[in-house]
Amino acid sequence: MPPMPTSSQGGGGMRGPSTFDKWFNIMRYGAGANGPMRTLGQYMLGSAATFGFFMSIGTVIRTEGSSAITSEAFARARRRPVVLPRDDTRRLKTER
Fold first, then answer.
1. Which segments of 1-96 does DSSP mark as H helices, in order?
2. CA distance 91 to 96
């Protein structure tokens, strides 16, 4: 996968306004009938919903074609850990 192109601002890709920028706009132009905190909350909720939507799309794309290797690795990660009883561990140490 090629690296992300850098922008003139130092970061990569598109970037939206920060929470500080949104707060500044609320203070500058007014929050309207909802009030400043509710308006900022709506901005933040919209940003979170957009992030979650695109993250879910990426997750579906990544897990769409599961291979035998990934299925085996997932099964190994989900199995019960092997724990020996305390007596067996003492016996194993003395046999060495």
1. 19-29, 36-63, 68-78, 86-95
2. 9
Q: According to the model, what pLDDT value does residue 13 have?
A: 58
Q: What is the mean pLDDT of each run of 10 residues along the chain (96 residues)?
A: 53 69 83 85 88 90 75 82 67 60
91: its two tokens? 């016996």
Give pLDDT, residue 12.
52
Distance between CA 67 and CA 20 in Å, rounded? 44
| Contact partners, residue 78, CB within 8 Å, separation at least 6 | none
Give me 30's structure tokens: 């007014």
Query: Is 36 in contact with 27 (CB distance < 8 Å)?
Result: yes
Q: For residues 67, 69, 74 and 75, what is the CA-based torsion angle, rounded to 10 degrees? A: 110
Contact residues for 51 (Cβ-Cβ < 8 A; gap 6+):
none
